[in-house]
Each structure stands twice: as structure tokens, then as C-alpha cells.
Amino acid sequence: MYTRFAAEGLGGDKIGADFDKNYYNNSSAATIDRWGILIKGKGFNYKIGRQDGALGQGLLYDSTGYMGKNQAALDGLIAWGKTGDTNLTFVATKVWGTGSTTPAYAIDASYSPAKGWKLGGTLSRLGGDIDTNYWAINTAYTDSDSAGNGGAR
Hints:
It comes from Sporomusa acidovorans (strain ATCC 49682 / DSM 3132 / Mol). By secondary structure, the chain is an all-beta fold. Helices cover 0% and strands 58% of the residues. It has a nine-stranded antiparallel sheet, with no helix packed on it. A two-stranded antiparallel sheet has the order 4-5. A hairpin with a 5-residue loop joins strand 8 and strand 9. 19% of the residues are buried. The mean pLDDT is 85.
């Protein structure tokens, strides 16, 4: 099982909030915003509950840095694992927000054709009022310095 308690307070000009300032208040928020069950299987893992998500190496969709209601958390199932050389992620969720009934479905695949390189593609669909399909390809290169530290480029 997992859960996350998140809190953030803003000072000064109150710019840079990672929460919905209209829903909580203008300067701070505190909430339990992620919870559910994590099942580790042979080859694939499954997360069921309210969670953040990232697709297309975080370029197409990424809600990991946000907190609370109306910040693109997902309610449902995300499964990920590896088959052969291919990393796969499957998403069957609903976007969590005030009055939201937007279903979100996706398949994300990536593989490494050479050391440091990663190529991938994503097909996703947001239903409800949005009713949009997304198709994306992405690539990333990670190098290492002499100390073995890596960095995405």
C-alpha cells in the first residue's frame, strides 16, 4: 500500500504554486493526494489508486511534480514492465478534478537501441469533454561522466 501527504506554502509574490490556488487558498495547501495499492509481479508492476503519471519520458504528460485536487492526478490502474528489450506502460484511469469524469487511456513503449539512447512512442486518449487522441514519438540520450553519474540530455 502507498499514500502521500503533501504540503506547500508560498511566500512573497506567490508565484510557482504546484497546487490549485483557487481550490485550496492563495498561499498554501496540505492534503493526502496519492493512495492505493502497488502489486509487484513477475516482469510487470501494477499500481491501483490515485497516483501521478508520466508518459513519453515525461514530455507528453507528467503530473509527478504537482499536488492536490485539479492537478492531473490519475484514478485507476497503471501497469508497467519489460517484454524483451521493450519497456511498456499501460494506463486506464480517470483524471482527478472537481467534477471531472475525463477517462485517460494510454500505451507507452520505449527501447534502447544503443548505450545511452532511448527511443519511444505513445498513443493516448482523453475522453469526456476533451475527447482527444495524442500520438507522440520521443528520444533521449543519457551520458555519464568519469564518476559514473548520469544526466539526461
